[in-house]
Amino acid sequence: MKQRLLTTFLAIPVLYYALWIAPPAVFALFVIGAVILGIREFYSMAEKVGAPGSPWIGGTAGVVVLVAFWRHEPEYVMLTLVLVVAVAMVTCMARRRPLNMALLSTSATLAGVVYVAVCLGYLISVRLVGQGTMLSAKLLSFYFMVVWGGDSMAMLVGRWLGRRPLLPVISPKKTVEGGLGGLAGSLLGAIISQVWFFPELRVTQAVSLGLIMGGVAQLGDWCESMLKRGSEIKDASGIIPGHGGVLDRLDSLLFNAPILYYFYRWWM
Length: 268
What we know:
The chain folds into two domains: 1-22 and 133-268, no CATH class; 24-131, no CATH class. It has ten helices and two strands, in the order H-H-H-H-H-H-E-E-H-H-H-H. It has 268 residues and is mainly alpha-helical. Strand 1 and strand 2 (171-175) form a beta hairpin. The termini are far apart. Helix 3 runs antiparallel to helix 4 (74-94), helix 6 packs across helix 10 and helix 8 crosses helix 9 (246-254). 78% of the residues lie in helices and 3% in strands. Strands 1-2 form a two-stranded antiparallel ribbon.
């Protein structure tokens, strides 16, 4: 727990700098690094269950996808995904892998790019809102406070009050009480954000978005736990002290990134 808190404490000023002070390119570089490491962890899990993805195809495609988001060219995201499938299939033939591995390998390669790169690519689009004005910093700060606030509250409530298992097959430590605490933490993060630095957001919007993102954050956590349980590993890696791997930190953020982007596009 101490190591986890220390890592979080050190990460906060870095995130503040990337969102509120530095130009958008700095945040984009952080996202690129997270995508490369996250894709690598995803393929490591896939290989353990007999579905080996291609790290060089996935890593390259992931960076190309992020560049497309940076340049506001979504058509190139779709083109990249098509090329991932084609190149992965050709690579299977060139390596003369058993035919029954072709579908598994191609699917794993594509899934890694979509799950990690496409989801996080939306954060780059949000960071470029208004050409990197304070609105983008507010949106992303709201996003991190809601998601990570829910994560922290779920862990604390689960440890102190957790009694009833929520998903015993996927994650024995997750409890109903922890899940409810996580929703409360996300809601609290949303309200604090609205009062503290985001008055442009109506209270009803903050509450609704906080609850939706809090629920989706837990869904993302469960999904990554399912992948780890299937791969028979505890953490995606040990790269972040006290937190495990990059995916262990990003799992609750991934599915929420598109939600944040389309909320801005459709309702702000």
